[in-house]
Amino acid sequence: MAQESHHAPEPAQQGTISALREAMARIEAEPAEGHHSLSGSSSPSEATDVVGAESSRASDYDAARQVVLRKLTGSAKSRHQLAEALREKEFDEATSSAVLDRMEEVGLIDDAEFARVWVRTRHQTKGLGATALRHELAGRGVAEPLIEEAVAQLSAEDEEAVARELLEKKLGDTVIPAGHNPEDRRERERQSRRLVSMLGRRGHSPSTALRLVREVMEERTA
């Protein structure tokens, strides 16, 4: 996955993008695969057939490689995302696998690092909690162990800090009524439901959302 905006990369992404671009420069300089000796051909016609087949394979490999390199320009992608892009372009599985395997060898594809950077960036810039981050990475085809490893970067304190920030931003200058009359109680309940729902959509657990909303509202009504 959600479409991403095209703002300048966050600090957490800078090192990864630089490394990706260096690897891209190396791999673009490589010749396409598929060129082999024709000395074993038993006749001119067979040699011609072999040349044609090898030329086609090399052409497909190079075309698939260029698709992947274009997809990687500016941002990392998971192997699954790139495989889907090649499938949409109707490259055969053998060609796609060969290209993607080579990209992994040179470090252009690294699902573990992709997941780690994704978690840090989305947590810091969007305030997403662990549940939402797991869902996003799973949707991009990242393996569950790598997802859990990436999400483990976040502590409970990290999640609470971004959740509180979201609440303060959402509330802004909103006044929370402190009265005990029915109208004030209804307004507090309405605000509470709205805030808990907002945190839930960002992937924060219901128990954490309820507790933090209660704390923030109490602070504003004290």
UniProtKB/TrEMBL annotation:
<feature type="domain" description="RecX first three-helical">
    <location>
        <begin position="64"/>
        <end position="103"/>
    </location>
</feature>
<dbReference type="InterPro" id="IPR036388">
    <property type="entry name" value="WH-like_DNA-bd_sf"/>
</dbReference>
<comment type="function">
    <text>Modulates RecA activity.</text>
</comment>
<comment type="similarity">
    <text>Belongs to the RecX family.</text>
</comment>
<keyword id="KW-0963">Cytoplasm</keyword>
<dbReference type="InterPro" id="IPR053926">
    <property type="entry name" value="RecX_HTH_1st"/>
</dbReference>
<feature type="compositionally biased region" description="Basic and acidic residues">
    <location>
        <begin position="23"/>
        <end position="36"/>
    </location>
</feature>
<feature type="domain" description="RecX second three-helical">
    <location>
        <begin position="110"/>
        <end position="150"/>
    </location>
</feature>
<feature type="region of interest" description="Disordered">
    <location>
        <begin position="1"/>
        <end position="61"/>
    </location>
</feature>
<dbReference type="InterPro" id="IPR053924">
    <property type="entry name" value="RecX_HTH_2nd"/>
</dbReference>
<protein>
    <recommendedName>
        <fullName>Regulatory protein RecX</fullName>
    </recommendedName>
</protein>
<dbReference type="Pfam" id="PF02631">
    <property type="entry name" value="RecX_HTH2"/>
</dbReference>
<dbReference type="Pfam" id="PF21982">
    <property type="entry name" value="RecX_HTH1"/>
</dbReference>
<dbReference type="InterPro" id="IPR003783">
    <property type="entry name" value="Regulatory_RecX"/>
</dbReference>
